[in-house]
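Just wondering, does anyone understand what follows?

——
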Amino acid sequence: MNIKIMFFLIIIILIIITGCTKEKIDCDKLDENKCLEYKEKCELCPKTMVSSYISCHSKEFCKNIPFE
């Protein structure tokens, strides 16, 4: 097998393994209905000391904010 072809195949396999082909979800830009569709990564955060409305954010973000 040609070295260039092998190198190309290795790069493709690494891209697939590392998840570069996965869709990145920006929870902050989703409305409430769309947020619920991506509940494995996003969550509706309740009202906080900083924000007076419910909004969609990453699950990590919601865990780390102080609620009212």
